[in-house]
Amino acid sequence: MMAIDLDKVLDKAWADKPLVEVLGAPVAALKGVTDKDGALLQEAFGVKTVADLGKLKYVRWAQALVALEHSVK
Length: 73
Hints:
Elements: H1 6-9, H2 19-23, H3 35-45, H4 50-55, H5 57-71
């Protein structure tokens, strides 16, 4: 199972919330993502929540390509 330090990836207000709440949070709950960024993601891809971003096919494709690149090194 993968471990993640939520303090490093979430804004302070979200770091102690249950996972189900974090997944339903606006993408601006992610550290470094602004409300404006969230609005642009919603406009471009229909992404409203952290879960939406994680499920976005373009994000998954990019992650797969990066994993593939690491597997051939």
